[in-house]
Amino acid sequence: MKKFIGYIQLMRPANVVTSVADVLAGIAISGYVLMHSGNLQLLPIILLCISTIGLYSGGIIFNDVFDAELDKKERPERAIPSGLISKREASIFGAVFFFIGVVAAAIYNPISQHVAVAIMIACLIYNRFLKHSAIFGPLNMGLCRGLNLLLGVSIIPEFVQVWWYLAMIPIVYIAAITMISRGEVHGGSKKTLYFAALLYLLVIGSVIAFAAINTQLPLTIAFLVPFSVMIFMPLFKAIQNPEGRNIGKAVKAGVIALILLNAAWAASFGAWQLAIIIVILLPLSLGLSKAFAVT
User: Is this structure's pTM higher than 0.90?
Assistant: First the structure.
């Protein structure tokens, strides 16, 4: 049982829930739910959700595989450095999830498969080469989330070419969180935290702009307000005292708040039913975050 829990810890289940929210937001952006409101086919949605669960789990597992030596010093309680799970076992575990993620997407359509493969490659490049790069590391991590949003959009394959640029928004948001996370162990810089706050405002402004264009502003604001509270309160506390513990809370809040951001995306494109379903994922992610580490 202890080893089983160790495997679950490797997956960061609270984070995995946020990846499902990414895909559901992408599906909302594609218009799939509105187009098929009278005869909604659930299988494509299920396949893409399985795909993102596999891809995100694989990426986060390999994060710990590549960081095993560093974690011996900074986070010795984790499953690999504690000796609970070997690097080989974790690598096989991660590879299985990557396989599931790519195959589930391939079953649906080739475009989804291509996006899934791109996510897998981006995850591995980040974990192996760019994680400790001050500039390219955060951008690469953001790319993973941006592609994950497009994985949802690929439910209507031709719409990936229409909405590809929306991937820039999660790239900016996750890049901000990744920059903040550099200070989780030894503390961070106030300048970095202020810059992250600026990027957060840019993300919020972008969603508001699309909501205004689509005449969906009131409902979108209803999701953006709690999102803003959730990300800015711990961030401002970290700015006041940028020690590792406060920064860790800001990072955790930023990751889980993705669910509210994705709900806002769904609302801004008129898919209010899907926005509510996405929000329902929030208590699940919060509950899992109390039992398993987010970062």
Answer: yes
